[in-house]
């Protein structure tokens, strides 16, 4: 993944900053609560939602379980339709392929459709190093690029910015990149959108190379699909002479008919619309209409490692709708940057540690960035059981064991820093396996109850810094039960 | 080893648990979701299309075939359009009442030239009532994709009820995947500022849809 | 009918009043309650923190202790969900790891007969009016594992609505997690505390005296936050409300 994220602190530390940033908290709360209610309404309009969700899950699972076959079929269909297919095992290879393709056109600038995959591989930085400037054209990506910022949401990368901040970024930075912001620009969303239109228009009209990802690729027909709202996607996909699409290998659907499921579930889950304003579908090249050259770069970059994990592979069903981010109480308070990845929120907490491994501090902390409340699973349009995968990855962190890394099976050591916890868990298991030992412990706690403070020093502050400890009762239930014969003896009757 | 072979090899090793006798695609995927939502008459389906188009800020007009040329002329005049892009196979009768200058959809035109044109008039391939969507497939009466993208005003004519389907599944059945397809649901929009929807970004900021049929010539939403 | 009370280790140690309330309530409804003294912990904290293999002996122990009973009732949505949702998954995982069917077979008998308290009342006993009296204004927080794991739905609310004297106030953002999440409360204490504070603010906005839930772990977190924020509200387990009567009112 992008070097931008190397050296990120662990999640709790990064979240600490966000939790105490009142502006950020306000921005996130406002945006996520707005979209939550709208999504619920858009989904409720469709009476067969559960059946669509199940079909989407099954289509994706079936495809993943036969991915080799569908990849080969897709390659043949795209080639037959006039496209050229490239395979990239990792980010470096994908970046090199794209840079070479751009250089071969003689161009030194490209326009980009918003794409998670190209962010994941750090394409813009790699192109910059080759002297090629990449212009982001999605409004939110533009805000992030102009603000020299990092994305914090899958759908709305600038969700952490409010309208006033966006206006300030436009006023200050647009002139550096091209057409300056209009005089007297205010913070009304319509004016901000107009400023982006004017700024980007000259870039669209002169662009010779477009770069995109794709939401779906249909194996049987070789069709690629990009779902968008602003029209920047259409601009990049149809005006340039050369189109390069970098797409993760998990984005395949077997048949044309499969689109009927996802074109219903994605917009409603994502922007909470019946249908997004624009969807472009193209199959290779078309004479006289759109790019005359089309390259598809199929990207692995950790996906096959993820596929090798029988529990974790369900994360590859993800269609990047971001519904899980929008309902997540942790995301709402920690913000997207704390996740240290282009994939924030619940899905990021299970994707990043699988795509990148759990060896870095941030990746080892992500599986714990959840209260396991299950709201993400409930809204997921492809029914990814995110809590299940989170717990599975926690196990990988604390127990280690066999994983696949860069296609090789390796045995992971248990992560450092969990030794005390591991010892405590073992001790608790020992005690819980022996009711007598549990009881002795309970009595010790009860008898020393007057000594128990409401707050704790040291590591105990993690709890008692913000919460009182519960009062300890004078006897545990089991003592009462035995003493009163289950409450049947007159004196201690149940009450 | 090529990256192609490397990736395919990794995929196969990753799927070691997948058995030969797994259910086939047809068995694995239940299709028990609906082909369309609700039970509507043809007229009601067209009404729903109009309603959903308007809900996403497309301007909807309804007229009869005889009134079409006058309706289009009126829309272009109201807009003050001096030039209008015309796909190669558009029914020229549709434009016989307007005095806007006709610009042909030519392969040689540059994007900058298209940017100077005021409006574009096209037909469509199919329209989807449940989602308020029109779909273009680059047919002769719709033209190259860019002519409905660069000009700021798009007039799209939908023949009702023939070109109207209820649902997304029904639309896909009618479309040819080999053609370049553009699905349009209202004018361009963005939710990128505070997740609130604002219409009008890079695509045409005004989308006018004419539902042309034999029944009525009343404007429902305009 | 004779049922086993699976009180949970947290309730046994810290919330014996909830245990006594369950016994009183079920006895009043004609159910014979047993408390198997050998019970300890279902293993949820281990499992959810990533120590599945440490949780396995605890799950086997649970099955040994409770396997012979007709029904197992627990006043905890999350421990109930552990048995019902996660024990089968533990069995499957052991099988996938090449350790055979032994764990799955051992755990299978307890899975279908484990009930969260409100589920047992409404579904098995078929009652919503349990004859309770509780003259207080109460707001109800549906805890996540009960709501989304077990699918308790409106059962707790129906039970509360039938309580004489009780005024039920709608909790804004009711279905949002309170931020407890087991070891999450310690590992991500900043976020956990922020979620707790929001939950408590929402609860305080209802003007209720009592916040009620069906899980004392969540109530420990919410209650601890209430005390620190000096809201004047208090957390009460739903069993204690349902056990309260005009003759023997709970305070």
Automatic annotation (TrEMBL), chain A:
Domain of life: Bacteria
Segments forming domain 4Fe-4S ferredoxin-type: 315-384
Keywords, ordered alphabetically: 4Fe-4S, Electron transport, Iron, Iron-sulfur, Metal-binding, Repeat, Transport
All copies of domain LUD, residue ranges: 73-285
PROSITE patterns: 4FE4S_FER_1
Record-linked InterPro entries: 4Fe4S_Fe-S-bd (IPR017896), 4Fe4S_Fe_S_CS (IPR017900), FTHF_cligase-like_sf (IPR024185), Helical_ferredxn (IPR009051), LUD_dom (IPR003741), LutB/LldF (IPR004452), LutB_C (IPR024569), NagB/RpiA_transferase-like (IPR037171)
Any one GO MF annotation of this record: 4 iron, 4 sulfur cluster binding
Pfam families hit by this protein: Fer4_8, LUD_dom, LutB_C
Coiled coil region boundaries: none
Region (Disordered): 448-495
Signal peptide residue numbers: none
Domain Lactate utilization protein B C-terminal intervals: 393-484
GO biological process, one term: lactate metabolic process
Name by which UniProt lists this protein: Iron-sulfur cluster-binding protein
Organism of provenance: Streptomyces cyaneochromogenes
Automatic annotation (TrEMBL), chain B:
InterPro entries: FTHF_cligase-like_sf, LUD_dom, NagB/RpiA_transferase-like
Source species, domain of life: Bacteria
Cross-referenced Pfam families: LUD_dom (PF02589)
Annotated LUD domain residues: 48-212
Protein known as: Lactate utilization protein C
Organism (species): Streptomyces cyaneochromogenes
Automatic annotation (TrEMBL), chain C:
The species this protein was found in: Streptomyces cyaneochromogenes
UniProt feature coiled coil, ranges: none
Domain Cysteine-rich per the UniProt entry, residue ranges: 3-83, 138-222
GO molecular function: oxidoreductase activity
InterPro entries referenced in this protein's UniProt entry, alphabetically: Cys_rich_dom
GO cellular component, one term: cytosol
Domain of life: Bacteria
Protein name according to UniProt: (Fe-S)-binding protein
């Amino acid at each position: 993944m992008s070097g931008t994220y190397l050296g990120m602190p662990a999640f709790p530390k990064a979240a600490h900053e966000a939790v105490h940033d009142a502006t950020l908290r306000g921005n996130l709360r406002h945006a996520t609560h707005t979209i939550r209610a709208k999504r619920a309404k858009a989904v409720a309009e469709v009476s067969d939602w559960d059946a669509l969700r199940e079909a989407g899950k099954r289509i994706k699972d079936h495809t993943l379980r036969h991915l080799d076959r569908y990849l080969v079929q897709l390659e043949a269909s795209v080639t037959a339709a006039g496209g050229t297919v490239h395979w990239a095992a990792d980010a470096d290879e994908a970046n090199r392929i794209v840079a070479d393709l751009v250089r071969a056109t003689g161009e030194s600038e490209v326009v980009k459709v918003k794409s998670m995959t190209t962010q994941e591989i750090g394409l813009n930085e790699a192109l910059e190093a080759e002297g090629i400037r990449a212009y982001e054209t999605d409004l939110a990506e533009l805000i992030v690029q102009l603000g020299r910022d990092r994305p914090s949401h899958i759908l709305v990368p600038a969700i952490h910015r409010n309208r006033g901040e966006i206006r300030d970024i436009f006023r200050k930075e647009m002139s550096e990149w091209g057409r300056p912001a209009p005089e007297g620009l205010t913070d009304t969303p319509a004016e901000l959108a107009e400023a982006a239109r004017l700024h980007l228009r000259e870039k669209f009209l002169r662009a010779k190379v477009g770069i995109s990802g794709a939401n779906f690729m249909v194996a049987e027909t070789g069709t690629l699909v990009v779902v968008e709202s602003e029209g920047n996607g259409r601009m990049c996909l149809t005006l340039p002479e050369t189109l390069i699409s970098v797409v993760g290998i998990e984005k395949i659907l077997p048949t044309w008919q499969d689109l009927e499921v996802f074109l219903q579930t994605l917009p409603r889950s994502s922007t909470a619309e019946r249908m997004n304003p624009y969807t472009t579908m193209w199959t290779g090249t078309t004479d006289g209409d759109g790019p005359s050259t089309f390259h598809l770069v199929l990207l692995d970059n950790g996906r096959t490692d993820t596929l090798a994990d029988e529990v974790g592979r369900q994360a590859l069903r993800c269609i990047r709708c971001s519904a899980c981010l929008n309902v997540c109480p942790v995301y709402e308070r920690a913000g997207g940057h704390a996740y240290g990845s282009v994939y924030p929120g619940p899905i990021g907490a299970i994707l990043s540690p699988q795509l990148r491994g759990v060896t870095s501090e941030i990746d080892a902390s992500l599986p714990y960035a959840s209260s396991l409340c299950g709201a993400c699973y409930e809204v997921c349009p492809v029914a990814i059981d995110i809590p299940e995968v989170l717990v599975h990855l926690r196990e990988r962190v604390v127990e280690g064991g066999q994983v696949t890394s860069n296609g090789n099976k390796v045995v992971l050591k248990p992560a450092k820093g969990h030794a005390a916890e591991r010892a405590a868990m073992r001790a608790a298991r020992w005690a819980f396996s022996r009711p007598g030992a549990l009881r002795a412990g309970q009595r010790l706690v009860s008898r020393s109850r007057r000594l128990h403070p409401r707050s704790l020093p040291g590591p105990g502050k993690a709890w008692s810094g913000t919460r009182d400890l519960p009062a300890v009762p004078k006897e545990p239930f089991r003592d009462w039960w035995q003493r009163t014969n289950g409450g049947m003896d007159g004196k201690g009757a149940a009450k | 080893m090529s990256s192609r072979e490397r990736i395919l090899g990794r995929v196969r090793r990753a799927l070691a648990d997948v058995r030969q006798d797994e259910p086939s695609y047809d068995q694995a995927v239940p299709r028990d979701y609906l082909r369309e939502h609700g039970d509507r008459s043809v007229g009601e389906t067209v009404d729903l299309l109009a309603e959903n188009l308007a809900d996403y800020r497309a301007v909807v007009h309804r007229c009869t075939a005889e009134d079409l040329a006058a309706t289009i002329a009126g829309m272009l005049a109201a807009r003050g359009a001096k030039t209008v892009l015309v796909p190669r196979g558009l029914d020229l009768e549709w434009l016989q009442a307007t005095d806007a200058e006709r610009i042909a959809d030519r392969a040689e035109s540059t994007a900058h030239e298209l940017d100077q044109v005021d409006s574009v008039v096209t037909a469509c391939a199919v329209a989807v009532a449940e989602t308020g969507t029109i779909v273009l497939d680059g047919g002769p009466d719709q033209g190259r994709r860019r002519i409905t993208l660069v000009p700021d005003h798009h007039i799209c004519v939908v023949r009702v009820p023939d070109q109207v389907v209820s649902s997304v599944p029904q639309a896909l059945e009618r479309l040819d995947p080999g053609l370049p397809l553009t699905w349009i649901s209202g004018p361009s929009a963005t939710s990128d500022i505070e997740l609130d929807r604002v219409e009008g970004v890079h695509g045409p900021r005004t989308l006018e849809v004419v539902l042309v049929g034999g029944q009525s010539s009343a404007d429902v939403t305009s | 009918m004779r049922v086993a009370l699976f009180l949970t280790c947290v309730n046994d140690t810290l919330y014996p009043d909830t245990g006594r309330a369950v016994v009183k309530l079920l006895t009043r409804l004609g159910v014979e309650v047993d408390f198997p003294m050998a019970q300890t912990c279902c293993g949820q904290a281990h499992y959810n923190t990533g120590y599945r293999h440490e949780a396995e002996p605890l799950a086997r122990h649970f099955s040994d202790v409770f396997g012979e009973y007709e029904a197992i009732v627990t006043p905890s949505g999350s421990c109930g969900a552990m048995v019902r949702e996660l024990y089968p998954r533990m069995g499957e995982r052991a099988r996938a790891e090449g350790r055979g069917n032994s764990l799955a077979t051992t755990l299978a008998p307890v899975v279908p007969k484990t009930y969260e308290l409100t589920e047992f009342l409404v579904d098995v006993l078929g009652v919503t009016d349990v004859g309770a009296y509780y003259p207080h204004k109460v707001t109800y927080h549906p805890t996540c594992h009960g709501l989304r794991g077990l699918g308790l739905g409106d059962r707790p609310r129906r039970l509360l609505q039938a309580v004489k004297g009780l005024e039920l106030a709608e909790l804004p953002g009711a279905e949002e997690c309170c931020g407890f999440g087991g070891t999450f409360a310690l590992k991500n204490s900043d976020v956990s505390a922020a979620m707790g504070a929001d939950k408590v603010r929402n609860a305080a906005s209802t003007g209720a005296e009592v916040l009620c839930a069906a899980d004392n772990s969540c109530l420990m977190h919410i209650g601890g936050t209430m005390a620190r924020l000096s809201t004047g509200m208090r957390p009460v387990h739903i069993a204690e409300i349902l056990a309260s009567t005009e003759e023997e009112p709970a305070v």
